[in-house]
Amino acid sequence: MLDDNNRIDRAMSALDALRQPGPDSERVVAAMESLAGIVLTGGNADVVSAIERFGLHYNSICRSYPPADIDTGIPSLSEDDTADLMSGLRAVCELIRDSETERILARLRHHQGKLPEAEIIQIRQHREWFVPLFIQECRDEIDKLKGQSVPNERSIALEQSIAGHDEDKYNSIPFFALYLFSEWDIHESIPIVLECFRLPGDGPFDLFGDGIHDQVPRYLAQFLSSDLDRIDEIICDPGLNEYLRWAAAGSYLYLVRDQNITVDDAIARLANNYQRTMFEADDGRPGLGHCYELSSGILENLYKLGGSLKSIPGDENHSWKFVDEGIFSRRDAETPLSGSELQNELLLLSPTRIPDCLECIRDWAAFERRPKPKPRRASNSTILDSVKPSTRPTSAFNSPIPSDTKQVPNATGTIRTKERVPRNAKCPCGSGKKFKQCCMRS
User: Fold this and answer.
1) Is 279 helix (H, G, I), strand (E, B) or coil?
2) Are residue 88 and residue 10 in the same domain, yes or no?
3) How far apart are CA 271 and CA 276, in angstroms?
4) Same domain for 140 and 256?
5) Element (H, E) at 153
6) What is the count of structural domains for the chain?
7) pLDDT of the chain, 442 residues: tens digit per residue
8) Is 291 exposed, middle or buried (0-12, 13-18, 19+ CB in 10 A)?
9) Sign of CA dihedral 127, 130, 132, 138
10) 212 in any annotated domain
């Protein structure tokens, strides 16, 4: 008896057999051979009724024809009977395929903290079938976000659903799609992904979670390496999320590593982007709403490539006014990387095109397996003996997570606390700095 996860493979193979040229009887036999051994128990109700309409029992297993029948066809059936059988087989196979497709997509939509590895492996085997479905799923989520009556209303609902363990409030497919599009090198994904980037507020994070920081630089370097102006447009567009723009600036590290642009040209472009994004008031100070985090991010990538503020026209001291030194400080800028250090840093970067998305996200904290609680000690133990240090889980980057913080995985690979600390609030670590200038990026 074969695994139930094999159903979509058998149905797809049977449909391919029915599309092949040749006599109808031979195609029917080939399709039945493809369905041989498929387990139908537990299938979708529509599939069950369709199978029963064609005289098969719901709990039966399709059996293969003997080799002689493949050579001689099915002489007992007329041409009309064979055509009817082909039509029935096609209908049953399509129902099995669609039922299994929905099961797989449902598993990806709401992973509930467990990596849907088996489903992703199946998706890989039928890439052409799933790519349009992923693109449509992203488009549906964009429409939902645009339909919110209040800005970031969905983000608030997302936080509430995480706290309440309500897994039906968000969709993880865009997150997985961002990685699979890269693994498969799907250029048709560019328009829909860029449309996701244009969502206001935290919209891109609602769809891609921490994939914004982890995958966006690589995605842009992979798909827009021959159109750097579009990358610069993302960096310099004040209507986009500032952290998305920061991630876009990071794509220049990959472009240099992959030799799609020289170091000098990358530094010149980042310096130009820095100047374009300095939002100045009339007195030359940072204007109202200036994005200090973005300026810091661009400058950080500039220095990683061996550049400096001397690369940016104007007074160096004036430029520092636009930087959040809690993110990138003058002290960091005093020791730029040497040529050999730069080469080593670039060699440590992940591959631009993802070779295996499962390997990229398998160790994320959202998917890690929590250790089982230890059994209680014997009843003769004292109260003090029963108090043990709590096991502290680690994040995706192996940094300790406070044991008194309730951790719940969300749809897109991000671990968030039950109560979110505002970026401009005092950091809970007690440093006295704002949260965004201290532990927010830890």
Assistant:
1) coil
2) yes
3) 9
4) yes
5) helix 153-163
6) 2
7) 334 568 899 899 999 999 999 888 788 888 888 887 776 655 556 665 655 555 444 344 444 434 434 444 444 555 666 777 788 888 888 988 998 999 999 999 998 889 999 999 999 999 999 999 999 999 999 999 888 644 454 455 444 444 433 445 679 999 999 999 999 999 999 999 999 999 999 999 999 999 999 999 999 999 999 999 999 999 999 999 999 999 999 999 999 999 999 999 999 999 999 999 998 888 888 998 899 999 999 999 998 888 878 778 777 778 888 998 888 888 888 776 777 888 888 888 999 999 999 999 998 888 865 454 555 554 444 433 443 444 433 333 333 334 444 444 444 444 444 456 665 566 777 666 666 667 765 5
8) buried
9) negative
10) yes
Containing structural domain, residue 40: 4-109
221 and 324 part of one domain: yes
Residue 277 lies in a domain: yes
Q: Which of 109, 142, 174 lies at the terminal end of a domain, its last residue?
A: 109
Cβ density class 57-95: b for 16+ within 10 Å, e for less: eeeeebeeeeeeeeeeebeeeeeeebeebbebbeebbeb
| Token pair 């959202």: residue | 366
Task: Report the Cα–Cα distance between both ends of the chain, in Å, rounded.
Answer: 49
Q: Per the confidence metrics, is the pTM higher than 0.70?
A: yes
- 364/407 Cα distance (integer angstroms): 13
Write the single-letter amino acid at 185: D
Burial pattern 12-37, b for ≥16 Cβ within 10 A else e, equals bbbbebbeeeeebbbbbbbbbbbbee
For residues 365 and 393, is the Cβ–Cβ distance under 8 A?
yes
Query: Do both 73 and 153 map to the same domain?
Result: no
Q: Which residues pair with 426 in a beta bridge?
A: 434
- Residue 254 shares a structural domain with residue 312: yes
Using an 8 Å Cβ cutoff, are 142 and 196 in contact?
Answer: yes
Pair (169, 311) in one structural domain: yes
Q: Based on the fold, state whether residues 226 and 321 are members of the same structural domain.
A: yes
In a domain, residue 256? The reply is yes
User: 411 with 209: CB under 8 angstroms?
Assistant: yes
DSSP characters over 352-379: SS-S-HHHHHTT-GGGPPPPPPPPPPPT
Secondary structure (DSSP) of 105-127: HHHHH--TTS--HHHHHHHHHTH
Residues 347 and 318 in one domain: yes
Domain boundary among 334, 357, 380: 357
Does 430 map to a domain? no
C-alpha–C-alpha distance, residues 172 and 111, integer Å? 7
